[in-house]
Design a protein that fits this description.
By secondary structure, the chain is mostly helical. Helix content is 78%, strand content 0%.
Length: 269
């Protein structure tokens, strides 16, 4: 209980530090933002394809809505914690972090959560304007769906963050876990719907993506926003599956971290 109280007291400070770091390293922050513009590239491609006739049920406005929604979700749920962990281990800063009374996962989470409003301030205005003006007919108008979008985004953030924590923690066990990240991102781009909507994939890939954690990192909030689920029960089930995958990912990340820290300390880190 004392550890929980210490963590709760430290959270406001962690959030302030996270905001200060984001502002101080604004150049790196903007570079990271620019790396999430793949949906805009795919938007230009698929709207050209659907300009003359719908493509598998998608009209140009549907592609506009989908990829702008993907841009919003990606910016609100993305994380750079893999690079952060790798750099701290390489530069010898991890030892000091492990000595602090706050668990590193909490400290990392505070830093990354505090950057969400700044990312939203940069990315959302343009995306929302285009989304409302060009593809407003493709967005759900169900209040219950819009309400469930909030926990869906939160679950997507936790799931993404936990998976990246697990990959980052591999840096204790291998030279650089960034190489693993490259493989992860290749799979994520396809099975999350980041590259193309999942309904445009071959049937076997759709089935694989349907139950994989990648869908719940990105496609699930988009499905809710665009109203591609049948009803409130379907939306609630989707969010419940997101929460379940998030809990599994957190458990895996913690297990990998503990194994890595034991090895790190054994070698005198």
């Amino acid at each position: 209980m004392s550890g929980v109280r210490t963590t709760l007291r430290a959270l406001p400070t962690l959030l302030r530090i996270g905001i200060a770091e984001t502002i101080a390293y604004r150049a790196e922050f903007l570079i990271w933002m620019l790396t999430t513009t793949l949906p805009l590239v795919m938007l230009g491609l698929w709207t050209s394809v659907a300009a003359e006739r719908p493509f598998q049920g998608f009209e140009s406005a549907d592609f506009v809505a989908y990829y702008l929604a993907a841009l919003i979700v990606r910016n609100l749920t993305g994380s750079w914690v893999v690079w952060q962990i790798n750099e701290e281990i390489r530069q010898g800063q991890m030892s000091m972090r492990l000595l602090r009374p706050i668990h590193p996962f909490v400290a990392y989470a505070g830093t990354h959560i505090s950057a969400v409003p700044l990312r939203a301030a940069v990315a959302l205005p343009v995306a929302v304007i285009l989304l409302v003006s060009s593809a407003r007919g493709s967005i759900t108008h169900e209040p219950s769906h819009l309400l469930m979008l909030i926990p869906s985004l939160a679950a997507a953030w936790v799931l993404t963050f936990a998976v990246l924590l697990a990959i980052g923690s591999l840096a204790f066990l291998v030279d650089r876990s960034v190489a693993v990240l490259n493989v992860y991102f290749g799979v994520f781009a396809v099975l999350s719907g980041y590259l193309v909507p999942l309904t445009l994939l071959p049937w076997w890939a759709q089935e694989l993506a349907r139950w994989s954690p990648f869908r719940f990192m990105l496609s699930a909030p988009i499905e809710i926003l665009l109203g591609r689920t049948l009803g409130f029960a379907d939306v609630a089930g989707l969010v419940a599956l997101q929460a379940g995958w998030a809990l599994v990912a957190c458990a895996v990340a913690l297990a990998v971290w503990r194994a890595g820290v034991r090895r790190f300390e054994a070698y005198g880190g």
